């Protein structure tokens, strides 16, 4: 059963799967979407606790909310409230524990695709 976290000021709670319940197929599904992969890449580039509004995404607010929910429910990100802002953080340690090397490999593949680089044969 997913765990919840309490926002300090608001009392709002968000469900997150515990580390041991993160499923590979859910993570792969979450990372298969270009928008969600973009969010994950930005978080992986050293940004801790980014507000959802900090991402300049080419989709509507409701679609953005959906993408963050998919990432959170898959166990890719952890979210909490700071005032009225929903903050997101990559669960890199949890993902590395469950699926060693998966996140770095996916992010490197995305980076190479973005710059048009192909791996040597």
As a percent range, the share of strand residues is 15-25%
Order of strands across the biggest sheet?
A: 3-5-4
The portion of residues assigned to helices is 40-55%
Q: Indicate the radius of gyration in whole angstroms.
A: 15 Å
Shape annotation: globular
User: Which regions contain 5 or more consecutive residues with pLDDT less than 50?
Assistant: 5-10
SSE order: EEHHEHEEHH
What does this structure look like?
By secondary structure, the protein is α+β, with helices and mostly antiparallel strands. 45% of the residues lie in helices and 18% in strands. It contains five helices and five strands, in the order E-E-H-H-E-H-E-E-H-H. It has helices at 24-31, 34-44, 61-74, 92-98, 102-115, and strands at residues 3-6, 13-16, 50-51, 77-82, 85-90. A hairpin with a 6-residue loop joins strand 1 (3-6) and strand 2. Helix 1 packs antiparallel against helix 3 (61-74) and helix 2 (34-44) packs across helix 3. The relative contact order is 0.20.
């Amino acid at each position: 059963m997913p765990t919840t976290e309490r926002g300090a000021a608001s009392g709002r709670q968000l469900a997150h799967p515990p580390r041991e319940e993160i499923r590979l197929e859910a993570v792969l599904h979450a990372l298969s979407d270009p928008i969600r992969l973009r969010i994950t890449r930005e978080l992986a580039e050293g940004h801790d606790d980014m507000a959802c509004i900090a991402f300049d995404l080419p989709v509507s607010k409701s679609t953005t909310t959906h993408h963050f929910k998919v990432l959170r429910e898959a166990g890719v990100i952890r979210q909490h409230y700071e005032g009225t802002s929903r903050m997101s953080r990559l669960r890199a340690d949890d993902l590395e524990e469950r699926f060693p090397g998966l996140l770095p490999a996916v992010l490197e593949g995305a980076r190479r695709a973005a710059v048009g680089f192909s791996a040597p044969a």
